[in-house]
Amino acid sequence: MQVTINQAKxxxxxxTGFIQDYDFTxxxxxxxxxxxxxxxxxxxxxxxxxxxxxxxxxxxxxNSAELLVNELERISKKYxxxxxxxxxxxxxxxxxxxxxxxxxxxILQVLIKYQPVLVLQTRSPMVVRDIDxxxxxxxxxxxxxxxxxxxxxxxxxxxxxxxxxxxxQTVEKLRHQxxxxxxxxxxxxxxxxxxxxxxxxxxxxxxxxxxTVDRIVIQPFHSSQNQSLKASTPAKAVELKRKYEWWYQNExxxxxxxxxxxxxxKQYYGVEIFExxxxxxxx
Length: 283
Fold this sequence. Notes:
Helix content: 25-40%
Mean pLDDT: 92
Number of helices: 11
Radius of gyration: 18 Å
Shape: globular
Low-confidence stretches: 224-231
Strand content: 15-25%
Order of helices and strands: EEEEHEHEHHEHEHHEHEHHHE
Distance between the termini: 38 Å
Number of strands: 11
């Protein structure tokens, strides 16, 4: 793993496109050690070589906390409401390097004073480490990414990522240790984005475990025909789609079938079901 220590010039970037409901995105790192084979964020690598080696490098924004204080002092004066921040859009704030670098933790310590509307997007159980800080936010949503119900699929597409079981257990821990009330609105979502194949024998138990969150977001796999920078599919993922042809040759039907099963959770448990961009908003 190539780890580089950098001094960032800016930390808050204007949110656009898929997460345009927010004011800013915040990425503590550049690159991601999880290196998921399908990740669109690889397209934002600094150069072609790093793009090809997605997952084998990470750049640590060492001065993030100090820089964030300066940016928030300047930016917050322009708003008569809490700033809306999405963390993170092109990296995972709780990738393995965070255990040592603690950049995300330092950022959270800064953000508490300013009380933004904050969304944390991660696939890592490490998020529970920061429960002491997270419970101090008045408006917080934690999105846990779980694109598949099947561990064997996860091992193919996300070989470096935490297991499906570990992520589901993370949701349970957060739900029990971060209660929500009138003053501290803490919300939870499972994001099945992009949706990966799931074996039918794994789905029933998986869906049963989703009833504790208030939202589920589902989105089809971004098209391998789309050559735009923001939605391009890496070659490794295209090869894996061939391996799972049994799913992708009927992708639309499989997607709709799963969506219909999730709708039952909405009917009986009141869990929100959203498709695509709409689900990534805080409200």
